[in-house]
Amino acid sequence: MRILFSALAIWAGMAVAAHAQEKYQYAVDIANIQNDKVAVTLKTPVITQQNAVFSFPKAIPGSYARKDYGRFVSSFAAFSKDGKKLKTEKLGANQFRISNASELAKISYLVDDTWDTKHSDFIFQPGGSNIEAGTNVVMNNHAFYGYFEGLSNLPYEITVTKPAEFYGATHLDVTHTSTTQDVLTAKNYVYLADNPVIYARPDTVSFNAGNSQINVSVYSATGKVKAAQVAGYLKPLSAALTKFFNGLPVKSYQFLFYFEDPKKALTDRKGGEGGYGALEHNYSSLYYLPEVAFEKDLISMVHDVSGHEFLHILTPLNLHSNEIENFNFTEPVMSQHLWLYEGVTEYFAQLIQLQNGLITQKKFFEEMRNKINQAEEFGDFSMTEMSRRVMEDSFQKKYSSVYNRGALIALLLDVLIRERTEGTKDLKQVMLTLTQKYGPNKPFDDNQLFDDFVAASHPDVRQFIDKYIIGSQPLPYSEYFNRLGYDYQPSKDVAAFYPGKMGLKYEEANKAFVFTGVDKNPLGVKEGDTFLKIDDVVVSAETIDDIWDKYFNTNTDHPEISITVLRDGKQQVLQGKIFDGHFKLKNYLAPTATVSQTQQQMLNKLVGKS
Fold this sequence. Notes:
The chain is α+β, with helices and mostly antiparallel strands. It folds into four domains: 2-200, Sandwich (Immunoglobulin-like), CATH 2.60.40.3650; 203-313, Neutral Protease, domain 2 (Orthogonal Bundle), CATH 1.10.390.10; 321-485 and 593-610, Neutral Protease Domain 2 (Neutral Protease, domain 2), CATH 1.10.390.10; 494-586, Pdz3 Domain, CATH 2.30.42. An eight-stranded mixed sheet has the order 5-4-8-2-1-12-15-14. Strands 23, 24, 25, 26, 27 and 28 form a six-stranded antiparallel sheet that branches. β27 (560-567) and β28 form a beta hairpin.
């Protein structure tokens, strides 16, 4: 039935394939790049109608904003079998109407680089394209290839002419026909768009997590970051995810990392041209991150970002709506469940690290407090309405709330489900129950999910959904954190000691921490002093976070401190009393003075202690 339906749907489209074996046959040359543009040609499937519309995506799954990839296409031309040029007309930003399309045999055009193109509406790097001759090509396929309206379900075959030293890292099936030619294949446009490729000199590592193969590919602008190094960071995270899922729900997964020279990236960001981050796909994820010299920060960054993206194998891969299953690249219809796809995913990314010892309990709750602070920027609103209307400018501004308010909703839901079911269920079990009901090839009805969610959890969850996900009531932080033995207050007067305004930077050449941004202070710390010790505690990569938190961020116990610095080649000890005062701490969150047995049991289960 499903095959028949697909055939009928294609027949009813604007353009019709003459034979079932018809496909898109693309050829792209990344060995001869001119002005950051790549030449693309397409041997088209047979078109029987007189007029056909060829499209590039307006938006893509996983990135909830208008992109208009057609604006990066130039020199678009259509030809008949005998080489006659056919009339074409640009329709808006992303479409071309081709006249006398029944004669059509070939299309050609140039694709421009989105990363370097200067314009007011910059595309976030993980969703765009980078074209650097002889260096690398970041090939997000939705930025390179299009489709005929009504024919997006046909197979794709892409012949890539490349430098001999380039390797294409991707989850797509690849046939290496020669050292300078690859053939990529995809079953349809959705699958093609879901599987990016990075062409560069190879730096790849593979390892197993349970029964799944994990592939890691790294491009590092200055060569500082290596695939083997990143794979080492990912192994404990992959093991934690395998434990979480009781085996990963994919046979293989591809991590595609692009580490940028931070000097260049900072210049780009000051110009409003994107920023660091990642974009998830069902079987891979693409990352644009800075080359961080301080390894502890690099590990933390990789864990945080990769954990979130990897977890998308739960949702939306195994749990998604019709709107995602049959994504309309031309006129996207958005699902109302971004709170699920992004919010629950972000919460799980933090929870899994907590439960497997990759972050501390203190770090976890600090992250939750940070999310409360971030969520305040957007106020209280309906998450479902924002999700449905996220393509509209006024709602697009609130999109990033899915990573803070959405994650907090997931935490509160987890606590509620655990409490109401007396520990027999939690949010993870509810999600896994729903993935068993649906799965990668069975989407849910967008309006049915809440009913299914309540049925899989507890009837009291309905009221929570109505108030805080569909509704716009303020989240009840105090009530829910108290159930975990934590005190939440919107604002609290805190007595503290303060050494003065100053920051730290890590100098890779000396493997040392140096004071920067120093104002006048009671100890006499100066700009450029190397930080060696504080109260006889040696400053190192292992101790710096605790030192900074204990003495500089929230110092409530040390009115007098001693700092050893290196200045002009000599060690100096700076000691004495520091500033004494009070400050208002917004969104105070800390363990309560006393914890009941019920609170401790709830907390222990959440953090993974039996």
